[in-house]
Amino acid sequence: MLVEPAPKVSASETDQGFDLIGDVHGCGDLLECLLERMGYQRQGEVYTHASRRAIFLGDLIDRGPHVQKALDIVRRMVDAGTALVVMGNHEAHALKQCLREGGRDFILPRVGGRSERVMHETLKQFERAPGLWASYLEWFLEMPLCLEFEHFRVAHACWDETLLRPFLAEHPDGRIDRRFLLAASETGSPEHRVLDRTTRGTQLRLPNGQMIRSLDGTRRGLFRTHFWARSPQTYGDVVFQPDPLPPEFEDQLLRDDERRRLVHYDPSQRPLFVGHYWCEGIPSLATPNIACLDYSAVRGGRLVAYRFNGESALDAGRFCWVSA
After folding, report:
1. Can you give the pTM of this predicted structure?
2. Helix (H) or strand (E) holding 257
3. How much is the pLDDT for 114?
4. pLDDT digits (tens, 9 = 90+) for 310-320
C-alpha cells in the first residue's frame, strides 16, 4: 500500500468510507462512545461497521485512565481488519524507553523526569501485566509510520515528502524494525529524522533561553510549528499548539535557518490527516486539504473523527466527536 507512485485502492476500498480518529490517549470509554456514535457495533469482541473502516492516528497510550481498554479495542479492530493505525510519538517514545540495550527484547523501563510523568498512567496500569505490555510493544513496532492511499494520506504529526519518499522506497509497508529503532536513538541520524519528523513534526527553539510552561506543567524551550504556511515571516505565522508564545515573540521574525527547518505541504497535495497538536474548541479544518484531529480529549476536550468519503476538498461538516 505504501509505494511510489501512490497505490490504487482496491474496489472494496473505493466503495467504503474511512473514519479517521485522533489521539485517544487512554480514553477507552470515550473511544467506545465515538465508535458507537458513528454506527460501529460490537460483534463479539470487535467493533465493526457495515461499510466503513476506522484509521487511528496514533497516541493511543499515556495520560488517560483506560489505556488497556483503548489498546484492546484498537488492536482487536486492526487484527480483524476493521481498522488501521499509524504510530504516534507516544508509541515511539515507549518503544525507545522499553527496548533493552542491544535491541533483543522489551522490558518495563526505568524512567525519570518528564518521561516518568508522560508514561506514568500507562506503566501503572500495566505494572501487574508486564507480559501483556511487552506484547503491545511488539505490536507498536508493527505500526506503520504513515499510510498513503490514492486519495489521502495519514501521519501522526507531519508529512515531509523529502524524508518519507526515500523511507518508503526502502520500507514500502511503512514499518520500522529494531535496527531502525536503535539507529533512531542517535539524534541527527537519518532514522531519527524520519521518526521524529513524522511523529513529532517540526519545532523551533525560543531565543534567549526563553521558556514556555505547557498545560501539563512542563517547562519547554521549544514550540510546535505547523507545515502549511506558504511564506511564513514570523513565529506567529507558524506556531501550532495551545500553549501561547510569550507575547514578545509573536512578531519575532523567522531567521533563514529556522525557515529552512520548516516543512510546507502544498494545497495541491491529496488530503492529509494528522493528530498530535492539542487543538481546542470546535473542530475545524487547518486548510482545505489538511485536518488535525487531536482535540485534547484527555484534557477535557473532544475525541474527534473525520468521516472521509474520498473528497478532494475536505468538508468541516464531516467532523464527528464526543466531548470528555
Report:
1. 0.92
2. helix 256-261
3. 63
4. 999 999 999 99
According to DSSP, residue 20 is labeled E
* Residue 253 β-bridge partners: 234
Q: Per-residue pLDDT tens for 26-59? A: 999 999 999 999 999 999 999 999 999 999 999 9
What is the rounded CA–CA span in Å between residue 241 and residue 231? 19
Distance CA 249, CA 212 (A): 11
The answer to whether the peptide bond before residue 5 is cis (omega within 30 degrees of 0) is: yes
Which residues pair with residue 53 across a beta bridge? 18
Q: Report d(CA 268, CA 40) in Å as an integer.
A: 33
Amino acid identity at 254: L
Task: Please identify which residue in the block is written with the cell numbers 485536518.
Answer: 291
Three-class DSSP category at 247: helix
Distance CA 23, CA 31 (A): 10
15, pLDDT greater than 70: no
Nearest C-alpha neighbor of 35 from the set 68, 1, 86, 77: 77
